[in-house]
Amino acid sequence: MGTPLKELSQIIFPEIELMGFRAVFSLFNFYRSSYILSKNSDI
To answer: 27: closest CA among 39, 16, 17, 35?
Structure first.
């Protein structure tokens, strides 16, 4: 056994980073769409 922790971190951390990016992106889309909806309903 060499360094399984290092290999594990190389696999896991990019996945977490990708998940975080996707979460932020979907949140941004949600806020943007709700903002557009509220603007359209005001008119």
So the answer is: 35
Residue that is written with structure tokens 């998940």 in the block: 19
Report d(CA 40, CA 33) in Å as an integer.
11
Q: Is the dihedral of CA 36, 37, 42, 43 positive or negative?
A: positive
pTM recorded for the entire structure? 0.54
Encode the chain in three state secondary structure. CCCHHHHHHHHHHHHHHHHHHHHHHHHHHHHHHHHHHHHHHHC
- Structure confidence by residue, pLDDT tens digits, 9-43: 888 888 888 999 999 999 999 999 999 889 887 65
